[in-house]
Amino acid sequence: MRSTVLVTGGAGFIGSQACRLLAEQGWSPVAFDNLSTGHRDALGEIPLVRGDVRDAPAVAAALDRYDASAIIHFAAKAYVGESVVQPADYWDNNVGGMIGLLAGARAAGVTRIVFSSTCATYGVPGRLPIRENDLQRPINPYGHTKLACEQMLRDHEVAYGTRHVALRYFNAAGADPWGRMGERHEPETHLIPLALRAASGQSGPLRIFGTDYDTPDGTCIRDYIHVHDLARAHLLALRHLEEEGESLALNLGSGRGSSVRDIVAAVETVTGRAVPVIEEARRPGDPPVLTADPTRAAESLGFRAEMSDLATILRHAAPWFGHEGRHEQAA
Ligand code: UDP
Question: Is the CB of 106 inside a 6 Å radius of any atom of ligand 1?
Fold first, then answer.
C-alpha cells in the first residue's frame, strides 16, 4: 500500500520538487500550503489542501482525511535579510507554525516528521566544514526560529514519542532537472536567480553584499545544493523513519564552498553573458563562510549530492531566467 505523506509548504520551491519525487517513488503526497508564496501549478496533479500550519485543527483534519502516516514540514519563512527587519513574522510563521503542526500531528496520532532546518542555526561557525554536533548559535532571527523548532521536536520526542529527521539545508539552488519547475520567489532575494536575471538584462546589476569578508576574494562563501538532491534526501529521511530509525539531525550540502564572485563567474560561463555587478555593504545577518561536512547524511541515510556542482545547478536554473539551458532527457 502506498503511504500518504502530508507535505506542508508543498507548493513551494523545494516542497513541490519533493512532492513530485514522492509520487514518482510510490508515495501519495498531499500538499498542505496557504499559497502565501507557493504556486498551485508547481504541483501538477498532486492534491493540495489550502491551509495554514498555525491552524492545528486544519492540520489534524488534513492528516485524518487523507490517512497520512508522516509529515514533511517545509512551510516557513526563509529569508535571512527579511527576518532581521521582520522578526515577528518569523516567530509567528516558523515557531507558531511548528506549534500548530505538532499539535495537529498529536491530535491525528502522526509521529513521523521530516523537518526543513537550516545551516543558519550554526551562526558563525567555529570551524569548517560544519559538523552536526558543532555549536548552534544563530546570528539572525531566521536561524533562531529554526533552532527553536529543532528543540521543540526533541522535546516532543521525549514526551510524546514523535520521531523526526531535521535536515539542515545549506543553500538550495537549481531547478527541476526535467524543466517542470524553477525558482519563483517574489520578491526574489537569492543570489543565483538574481545573477541569472542580471545576466539576461531583465534587471539592473547584481548587488554584491560585502567585499571585505575574510575570505580569499572578500565575498561570502556558501555551499550550494541542487533542489533535486535536497528532495531526494527527504525521501531517504522518510524511509528511515518508516523503518523505525532513530531521530536525526543532518547537514545537507555538497561539502564545497563557492563565493559570490565564483557564482558570478559560473553564471557568465554557463550563459555566455556578462553579469553586471555593483559592490555594496555587507547584508546584516550574513556569516562569512558556511560549508557542510556531509559525512553524517552519507553514513546514516546513504545520501550524497549528485547534481550539486555549479555547472549542473546553473544549467538547470538558467532557462527559467530567459537563458538557453539544458534539461535532462525525459525521466
Ligand atoms: N548575495 C549577494 N547579492 C544578492 C543576494 C545575495 O551578494 O543580491 C549574497 C548574500 O549576501 C550571501 C550569498 O549571496 O552571502 C547567498 O545569499 P542568498 O540570499 O542566496 O542565500 P542565504 O545564504 O541568505 O540563504
Answer: no
